[in-house]
Amino acid sequence: MTSGYVKDSVDALMPGSSGSPVFVLLSDSVIDLISSGKLKSSADFIFVNTMDRIPFYMNDPNSLAGNIYSEVGGLSGVSGEGIEVSDGKGGSLADYSVIIDKTGIDNEMTPEFLFSSRISPSCIIRAGMKSNYQSLTLLMESALYSGTKRLIVTSGNDSGTISPLVKKLYGKPETLTGTPFFTMGYINIFIDRSALQSREIGDEAYSRFTGYMKTGAFQKASVYLARWNSFQKERRSLAYTADLWLMELLSGRAESSMAVLNSYKVSGDEENNMIKLRRAYTFFSSGDLKSSEKELAGLSEAVSLTGDLKLFTALLKVMRDGDLSAADVLVSAKKQEKTVLPLERYLLPAAQFMFISGDDRAVKLLSLIPEGAYLSEGEHLIRYIISGVKPPVGESIRFNRTASLRDIKDLSVQRENAQRLIRGVKGIDSLSIFPVITVMISHEGGSNSDEIIQFGDSINLKRIITESGDLTSLILLKKRDNFLLSNEMYAERVPLLTDMLAIASNELLSHGEFSGELRNCALH
């Protein structure tokens, strides 16, 4: 069978039949012919493993960018005109649009790696790989699963083979060597000019970045932020640094977020002030109050930070000093408040603290968070628990099911489902606490004391709070303590209050009425 786009006859591939790209069905015979040199490789042969995959390869929205990771050296001639070749030191594979993987080197682009990782490069070139039907088919499936539709596999592993392939990939007229290669996937892999349309592709990449940030899919967001950055004249701009910092912070990687700030080369006082503000917030979110206040010192005269300093000061008064009257400043903030940091960075911690303190203004604070704000999965869930604002559908099935727990009216079913959601793939983690909080709140004021006691006895509360943030842990512990107190289970409160006091001794929470209230509880 042959057609203008699909060929599965070896005769149809003989010299004189090419001229425009055609899909070729992989088979042992055609692989043997090309590998043996009896049939010369051609940029017009685009291999697919099965007929039903062809519709997937008619287009590719994962546009090619100019940042290349290469384990094959000697590709300096490829660089230029928006194309940059790197050995990847100091970065991650997710940062690159094209990955040139040399067999025998670490981080091999094997099917196992592609199925389990979250990288999604535009193109993967495997150098020094011996080809057979099974290996090529499995590689195609794993790459498609990861979002990569452009694959080139060659037995050659030097720059003489790879450099012409890369140049041709970017639309440059280039004569390819006689070393056998297989081009698989996207039909226009060698004639796609999208890499030259940098502005449009860059805008599309940033749009995808913001979309993933809104749903808390930070690993996917990182791919498109790196792709957008590769199209910018200034690769490490303040805008890029700010986005990368926030993404790392929301991912729970405070040290990485600080490293992002420290690696930025500031230009002028205003940029320096903006970096110091972000450092202050990073220290604050980690509970290091002294370092946070040290960064804030000297920013009082920074006019561009007036809105941030007003809200940051109010936040510190609420949490550090227990001065809940300072929350009025936050409550009066407007969604269009001019701040360098997103408004929700100030509203969320204050709302959690006030919820713990029984202050109804917690709901008001959360209502001020703009639609489409960048929140972590945990922040989405705690916002839902406190104010009823439903999270967007996320990438994780576990996250989505945890969010839907609140909608289950049959409390026995809710408890059963919560039990299943406490443990993730790697066991207890930062999401484990939210099914437990949901169950505790749903059973407040009910007559299910025995069931809640049984539920509480079946979970490792100590381990759960060690994997959670201080404020979230206090919310759970206080809800649990209220239940024990109402059921006159005084002995069971002792270890609970000990845990609460340990958290409240945190530098950020150790002052003011809140910590004193906990100590009074412990004494009684």
Secondary-structure map:
Blueprint: E1 6-7, E2 22-25, H1 28-36, E3 45-48, E4 67-70, E5 84-86, E6 98-102, H2 111-116, E7 123-127, H3 133-146, E8 150-154, H4 159-169, E9 181-185, H5 198-214, H6 218-230, H7 238-250, H8 254-262, H9 269-285, H10 289-296, H11 306-321, H12 327-331, H13 344-356, H14 361-367, H15 377-387, H16 397-404, H17 411-421, E10 423-424, E11 427-428, H18 433-442, H19 449-457, H20 461-466, H21 470-486, H22 490-504, H23 512-523
Parallel strand pairs: 1-2, 2-3, 3-9, 4-5, 4-6, 6-7, 7-8
Antiparallel strand pairs: 8-9, 10-11
Explain what you see.
- The structure is a single chain.
- With 524 residues, the chain is α/β, with parallel strands linked by helices.
- Helix 3 links the parallel strand 7 and strand 8.
- The chain has 23 helices and eleven strands.
- It has helices spanning 28-36, 111-116, 133-146, 159-169, 198-214, 218-230, 238-250, 254-262, 269-285, 289-296, 306-321, 327-331, 344-356, 361-367, 377-387, 397-404, 411-421, 433-442, 449-457, 461-466, 470-486, 490-504, 512-523; strands at 6-7, 22-25, 45-48, 67-70, 84-86, 98-102, 123-127, 150-154, 181-185, 423-424, 427-428.
- The chain has a nine-stranded mixed sheet with strand order 1-2-3-9-8-7-6-4-5, covered by helices on one side. A two-stranded antiparallel ribbon has the order 10-11.
- Mean pLDDT is 87; it is low at 1-6 and 9-18.
- The radius of gyration is 28 Å and the shape is globular.
- The chain folds into three domains: 6-195, no CATH class; 302-374, no CATH class; 377-523.
- The relative contact order is 0.06.
